[in-house]
Amino acid sequence: MTKANILIIDDEEKIRNLLSRIIRLEGFAIWDAENFKTAWRILEKQSIDVVLCDVKLPDGNGVDFVKAALEKFPRLQIILLTAYANIADGVQAMKNGAFDYITKGDDNDKIIPLLNRAVENVRLRQRIDHLEEQVNKRYGFESILGESLPIKQAIDLARKVAPQDTTVLLLGETGTGKEVFAQAIHYGSKRSGRPFLALNCSAFTKELLESELFGHKAGAFTGALKDKKGLIEEASTGTLFLDEIGEMPVDLQAKLLRVLETHEFIKVGDTKSTEVNVRIIAATNSNLQEEVKEGNFREDLFYRLNVFTINLPTLRSRKKDIPLLADHFLKQFSLKTNTRVTSMSKAFLDALQNNEWKGNIRELRNAMERAVIMASGTELSVEDLPLEIQTHSENSSILSAFDLANVEKLHIQRVLNHTKGNKAEAARLLNIGLTTLYRKIEEYSISS
Q1: Which of 55, 242, 293, 400 has a 20 to 30 Å separation from 142 between CA atoms?
Q2: For 298, what's the count of Cα atoms within 13 Å in the CB-facing half-sphere?
Q3: Which CATH number belongs to the domain containing residue 184 in this structure?
Q4: Cα–Cα distance between 49 and 198 in angstroms, integer?
Q5: 207 in the same domain as 326
Q6: Which residues contact 177 (CB under 8 A, 6 or more apart)?
Q7: How far apart are CA 133 and CA 140, in angstroms?
Q8: What is the maximum alpha-carbon separation in the chain?
Q9: Do 110 and 45 have their domain in common?
């Protein structure tokens, strides 16, 4: 296995042959070119890691080549070779992104150590790119599943605003994925390598929320034994996601408004301002305009937050996406629980489609986790779902007109689940004959 792919660009054949022999002995794969025209063809076809390039060639200059090559192949590492070192060329080469700039002949003993360092740089960049790809799959826009028009429209808006530093307001019912969208916007922005912190404003008392957000100085109140940074300061250069912003007390809203307008705030117990560079993404399931009318939310803060608003659709408005989401959760929880559940019955999917999902994606996620845990085979069935979803599904079926029959079917199914399919034991617990049980299993199409 070769250590890396090296391209040598030099118009002198003797130099190319000498470098090739030295480098090939170290386990590298070699390509060579006598001019930039040939070099570009090789770069287009081969996965080159490092280029050794003469500065002066008949069809161009190596210093200029560095800039052009890195624009097209950003992972590439380029080492420039020159017969006569020129400080100005060396400085410009490094500015253009060259890995190093060395003199021919005198520095042949440095080539291999230099190549090894350049290859390490390539591998490090590849690992970083791979990690970024994994992060994007988990937290970026790729993590938002859906093919329906409402979710596509929301994703499109989020993608457009992500690269900006604009404040974003996410509106939607509980469980629609507001934090998932906030994370995707963050990881789609120039702040992606910086902190992403989240805070639910409804989870704290006013005093604790103020301390969590803005921090405090030692001695500011009983129990404040040392200085503490708030989340606004911790998230500086990154993004702070404020969920349930409508639950924030009015006097704290004024302090948040100051952060948005001046990028500074005063910690609890402090006398001087702290400057921050933080992007705010807020979310709520409340009608903030109504809250403004009732005096529960500051109008000036509302307008400051409402710069770019994204409405997240409910799950019931995007039922086309339910099978896709369900399959995603099935794979996720099968892996988590180390089970072999691989599919869902048609009746199971119908039950999911018929449910109202007032808790939206969060409710679907919970239902799928329970179903995977309850499953006795490789396929999920209606009986693996929570009883309220089963009941809703049955009420939507042909049995919906016969409430007693519906209840009877569900009861028989629960007893069969309890006896793990033992029909004789089920008949005994139901206090009916085994023949009657078989007839009802057939009549109601009960899985057993």
Answers
A1: 242
A2: 16
A3: 3.40.50.300
A4: 40
A5: no
A6: 144, 312, 360, 361
A7: 9
A8: 102
A9: yes
